[in-house]
């Protein structure tokens, strides 16, 4: 089981082997954290992503990190569920995002990984439930990743994640 830490900060500024972006199915870049990742990595990220698209919700794939600062070598793209009230297997899809990110990280030999809150922005997933799913899935998934850093974009998200990790 990896060490899980929670930080408030900028995902693209994390000094880890790989970062996860909460992508849309096209992998061409979207809003929120995905926009920031694409801006920092440069246009080749969208080109690499489009060659792997479409990506189903709950799945994950990796591309090079392009212009992101070392030690980041990979961007892992995952598509979270759009919240539709909880009756459409959203929890299972969200858990799959975290599992698949760890599986992809393992295939790449990643030891340190930074992950944002998946689906809690424009996809509308309730943040408290999303935090619970994120932490419980990361703890239950066998992986060679040694450190998972959950990167919160605001204090409320940080506090929810910190409660789950504690």
From TrEMBL:
<dbReference type="Pfam" id="PF01661">
    <property type="entry name" value="Macro"/>
</dbReference>
<protein>
    <submittedName>
        <fullName>O-acetyl-ADP-ribose deacetylase (Regulator of RNase III)</fullName>
    </submittedName>
</protein>
<feature type="domain" description="Macro">
    <location>
        <begin position="1"/>
        <end position="166"/>
    </location>
</feature>
<dbReference type="InterPro" id="IPR043472">
    <property type="entry name" value="Macro_dom-like"/>
</dbReference>
<dbReference type="InterPro" id="IPR002589">
    <property type="entry name" value="Macro_dom"/>
</dbReference>
């Amino acid at each position: 089981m990896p060490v899980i830490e929670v930080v408030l900060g900028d995902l693209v500024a994390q000094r880890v082997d790989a970062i996860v972006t909460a992508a849309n199915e096209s992998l061409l870049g979207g809003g929120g954290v995905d926009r920031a990742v694409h801006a920092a990595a440069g246009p080749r990220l969208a080109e690499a992503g489009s060659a792997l698209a479409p990506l189903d919700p709950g799945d994950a794939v990796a591309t090079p990190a392009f212009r992101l600062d070392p030690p980041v070598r990979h961007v892992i793209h995952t598509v979270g569920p759009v919240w539709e009230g909880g009756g459409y297997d959203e929890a299972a899809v969200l858990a799959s995002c975290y599992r698949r990110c760890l599986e992809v990280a393992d295939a790449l030999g990643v030891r340190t990984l930074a992950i944002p809150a998946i689906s809690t922005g424009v996809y509308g997933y309730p943040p408290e439930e999303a935090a619970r799913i994120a932490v419980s899935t990361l703890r239950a998934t066998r992986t060679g990743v040694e450190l998972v850093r959950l990167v919160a974009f605001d204090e409320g998200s940080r506090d929810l994640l910190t409660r789950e990790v504690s």
